[in-house]
Amino acid sequence: METTRQAKIARLLQKELSEIFRQQTAKTHGVLVTVTAVRVSPDLSIARVYLSVFPGDKAAEMIESINRSAKTIRYELASRVRFQLRKTPELAFHLDDSLDYIDNIDHLLAK
């Protein structure tokens, strides 16, 4: 069960990370990255960030690229939340494929 503190930190991280990715979207040439959810561990040391990538055929490539630059993203995040958080959690990026799953279910039901 997620505590109130975890939920507040998750919302803060989601807001700031989405702003970072929004600024980086201009450099990715047509690939849109959206932060769909952030889950923070109970000790606040690890944050699992779930990303949705459009178009979907570039998703694996983008997640791999983002994971390679996770330290840079964490540094940028730390500079933004330095007055709210004492220590910035480690970031682990994962692909959120829930929209693909929903589309597949809709397609199967349409048959």
Question: What is the CATH C level class, in words?
Answer: Alpha Beta
Q: Give the count of structural domains.
A: 1
Low-confidence stretches: none
Mean pLDDT: 90
CATH architecture: 2-Layer Sandwich
What is the percentage of strand-forming residues?
15-25%
How helix-rich are the residues, as a percent range? Answer: 40-55%
Question: How does the overall form come out from the CA principal axes?
Answer: globular
Major sheet description: 3 strands, mixed
* Strands, total number: 3
CATH topology: GMP Synthetase, Chain A, domain 3
The whole-angstrom Rg is 15 Å
Molecular structure report:
A hairpin with a 5-residue loop joins strand 1 and strand 2. The chain is α+β, with helices and mostly antiparallel strands. Helix 1 crosses helix 3. It contains four helices and three strands; from the N terminus they run αββααβα. A three-stranded mixed beta sheet has the order 1-2-3. The protein has helices at 4-25, 59-68, 70-80, 98-110; strands spanning 32-40, 46-54, 90-95. Helix content is 50%, strand content 22%. It has one domain (4-110): GMP Synthetase, Chain A, domain 3 (2-Layer Sandwich).
